[in-house]
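Exam revision sheet. Question 4 asks you to relate a sequence to its structure. Input first:
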Amino acid sequence: MAKGSQEGMICLNSDRRPQKGDAGFTLVEFIVATAIAGILAAAVAPNMVHFIKDNRLATQANALAADLRFARSEAIKRQENITVCRANHSFAACDINIGAWNMGWIILDASGEVLRVHQGLDYAYILRGEVGDPDLADALVYTSNGTPLSFEIQSFQLCDQRGASYGKTIYVTATGYPRVDQTSSSNC
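Answer key, structure tokens:
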């Protein structure tokens, strides 16, 4: 290497001082910004968990409402009775034992053919059909004009581990159309 040539050398002892146009953060600025971000994250985290649980509950309620709308439209289209009921363990027939709808539900046509299956809910949810005694509501039958055969089920109550105050109610109107609302029942 020729004398005076500094090509390829790294200079560790630079007298260069930061200039006015230099960009970047100092270590102190970085630590302060990180601390502020951590405090904000800690304040938001509980609300985010609540938000996620609310959305999961709404998703389950809307899934049942969508299946009820499907059953109603199939009854009108096929001009026959369509049944929405709690499913047995094989998802091939209705479960007539007393209990909640947590194991899932099926939609059957008049001949007993399964049209749609909804698998069981997550363990954190409780879904009951309401008729007075919430465990006795087994099925909802739609007639060929889309109305319920009778009001075996007037509403469904869906709750999670937080209880009834956070739950959803799926109401079945006299015309058979389901709507989702905040729960007002304490049967969760």
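Marking note for examiners. The chain is about 30% helix and 20% strand.
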